[in-house]
Amino acid sequence: MSEIIEKHMTxxxxxxxxPGYQKWRLMxxxxxxxxxxxxxxxxxxxxxxxxxxxxxVVYPLFVAPSAEPVKTYSVPVVASGKTVFLSMExxxxxxxxxxxxxxxxxxxxxxxxPIKEEHxxxxxxxxxxxxxxxxxxxxxxxxxxxxxxxxxxxxxxxVTYPDDVRLITPEIQFPLGKQPIQLDxxxxxxxxxxxxLGEDESTIVAATADGRLMLSHFIREESLFSDEGDFERxxxxxxxxxxxxxxxxxDKEQRDLYLANRQGDMMVFDLTDKTAPKFLDxxxxxxGGEITAMxxxxxxxxxxxxxxxxxxxxxxxxxxxxxxxxxxxxRAFKVSDxxxxxxxxxxxxxxxxxxxxxxxxxxxHTTAERELIKQTLPAAISALSLSPRANxxxxxxxxxxxxxxxxxxxxxxxSWKSIWGKVWYESYPKPEYIWQSSSSSNDFExxxxxxxxxxxxxxxxxxxxLLAVPxxxxxxxxxxxxxxxxxxxxxxxxxxxxxxxxxxxxGFLAGLWLAPFVELHLLSIFSVFxxxxxxxxxxxxxxxxxxxxxxxxxxxxxxxxILIPVIILATWFAFIISPVFETWFFDxxxxxxxxxxxxxxxxxxxxxxxxxxxxxAVIPTIFSIAEDAIFSVPKHLTVGSLALGATPWQTxxxxxxxxxxxxxxxxxMIGLGRAVGETMIVLMATGNTPVMDLSIFxxxxxxxxNIAVEMPEAELDSTHYRVLFLAALVLFVFTFVFNTLAxxxxxxxRNKYSSL
Length: 756
Hints:
Layout: H1 2-13, H2 19-58, E1 66-74, E2 83-88, E3 94-99, E4 103-108, E5 114-119, E6 128-133, E7 140-145, E8 149-160, E9 167-173, E10 181-182, E11 190-197, E12 201-208, E13 213-221, E14 230-238, E15 247-250, E16 256-260, E17 265-270, E18 278-284, E19 291-296, E20 302-307, E21 311-319, E22 325-334, E23 340-345, E24 351-356, E25 360-365, E26 370-376, E27 381-386, E28 392-397, E29 401-408, H3 416-420, E30 435-436, E31 447-448, H4 451-482, H5 485-497, H6 503-520, H7 522-543, H8 548-552, H9 563-585, H10 590-598, H11 607-631, H12 635-643, H13 648-659, H14 661-677, H15 680-685, H16 703-710, H17 719-753
Helix pairs in contact: 2-17, 4-11, 4-14, 5-11, 6-11, 7-9, 11-14, 12-13, 14-17, 16-17
């Protein structure tokens, strides 16, 4: 009975010893364990899902393009003449066949059924001697006639929706009038011609049968009573023997005229002054064969040349070191070993379709330097047309058949070289790394190089860590080891609360206040980094010679407090003395002096501003983790080291820092991760210019900032949109790999120094 009473009294005095409480505690422990495990697994699952979602969005960029046949049928209305050109409208529903007799046959692309037939008005004594297409996206075509005249036609597709069903009605227009325009007053046949029509001016260049080259320029005159007005015409004869010219192109700006013979001699003329054409350059462009085809690439800044050896080359006018425009080969593609007979460029991208005389068809993207598709048709091709959206093509073969093919080629702009390598872009003097993703014109050449963005990310992180790591680690070591506990209780929370500052506020202050301040006091900023350490060293040297009673009046661990006025005075002195030195040694303006003497430019929003602002944001993270690691070093290690005769500094360097090195390394890696992924500070404190310049006085653009800037403007599922996700994937993988390597290093440090 007494034992029962004693047990009851024990449970009453110590309720934690009761079986019910023990069960409840075990249950809470299990719930906590499950919660921690579930939370950890949830984080891992979330990270894995993010990775696979990024991969899901990026994957279509690397899907191989394809082409497949849809329909083959006989050439419609064969009696209308031989096909000299094929074209397609945007919806891939209606095609047009231009014949050597002046007929234009519109037909359904799906089955080849004729829809409508038009013809140009010709007199009884007129025959067609030449044909040329203007800009394909404008649907302009020209016929050269046997009496030296030319007639210009334009195809137009009218779209209506009767009964909510799309109906496309083709028609032809005559932008320069139905009556032929007499170019040659001597009435010689026009054997070759090229033209460009504009809103206010138009230009036609034609070669005559007797070897003369004629240029006619038309300027629209405004009419008070009519919207159309008349044309003021200027005729100029170029002093060139045109009898050998086989290819002729005039760009859309009506400025550059390209003339080439079959042997590969190319001449370029500047037609800025239509009355006095200026010779620019002459090059041999055939690459060892004869020229068999020549067309403009979309944008008409480059000329595509196919030769008899199956080589397709891209040439463009670029400026040399003397600012003179010269004709240079940018790149070349080996299509086959047979002559290239057809070139059909894309109308909205920098792609091109070519065909040789064996029926081989290939599609390339010039900027990406990538072969996309290569297929073979059953016979040699006499006419070829790529659709405006580049998702289909029609080809007429010499056996009288038209082949309709579907093309799946969504993202041709992306290749390993276009993403990571140097690319020679149009109008650039040499290959470069460029990010320039969008423009208001379809003629624009997208530049998707991630290299300058990766460079900017590493550059911003480097300068931020260059400032943050020494200050944070030294501050953490002093706070944890040397500082008085009462002072540590003030300093550590104060530094840690800095981490709560929103980075958008720091970026705002950096862009609107710090950047102009640094520009105005550049030499003073650099002086501060020199004067403050010297001032602290001088004060420390003087401190040891002060009276002992005065030194002992400062409590142990509070010495850092008396350095505050020293640092303030040193900063004030640096700002006072710097303008004097700037006047003495840098002609009163250090920025202009650096530009003149060292060739170093200065942008207001640069890496120095980013380094200061982002370093300020990273310091609390590194300081807090490193300080905890140092402070957690077991006291018996430090006491034992001091007891064996080591000084406090020797103990700090050889015992404390080595023991805390895994935590210190983790602090630095976490700080670097934040610097690499920082968005708002670099977005607001730099010029966001994707340049590759190591100078601390130049700006940059980071991966994170680029995604933040351009993602809202990117079209859903476009190449631009997916490349931005690729940038996010690169940032994700970079962070993952770097953190994994850092964890391996940290574990190695832990194993190495855990025995201390």
